[in-house]
């Protein structure tokens, strides 16, 4: 299975099983922040080592124009449903990245995505997998998003 890993999975104890994984630059931003706000030198060292290993293991996916458009759609949905999209900016960037790439977002924090569960496929790493050809709910491929919908 192909999937995008949420930051919660990247810092978790166990890697997800049987996953062709990718990460977003949004997760790298969260990890860099975590290093900078570590409360003591030992914790900062652990976080720095983890960040270095993750940066070495992955070529992070950038935030493209298609991902920015999808982020806007998801943020509007959160706002229209009574949520606060600015408090969820990184989560929404990760969900948008997963949607544009047509893969699930593996996270230990599925509750963070509950308000848009009909628009994105956020699941626990151990969750059962739908058929690989089944895209995330409401998602369109990057090619589809590059072109305006037919009238």
Main beta sheet = 4 strands, parallel
Helical coverage, percent range: 40-55%
Radius of gyration using CA atoms only: 16 Å
The tally of strands reads 4
Give an overview of the whole structure.
This protein is of the alpha/beta class and 151 residues long. Helix content is 44%, strand content 7%. It contains six helices and four strands, in the order E-H-E-H-H-H-H-E-E-H. The longest helix is centred in the first third of the chain and has 17 residues, at 41-57.
Keywords:
single chain, 151 residues, alpha/beta, 4-stranded parallel beta sheet, 6 helices, 44% helix, globular, disordered C terminus
Q: Can I get a quick summary?
A:
Helix content is 44%, strand content 7%.
Describe the protein's topology.
Blueprint: E1 2-5, H1 7-10, E2 20-22, H2 25-36, H3 41-57, H4 65-80, H5 89-101, E3 105-106, E4 122-123, H6 142-146
Parallel strand pairs: 1-2, 1-3, 3-4
Helix pairs in contact: 2-3, 4-5
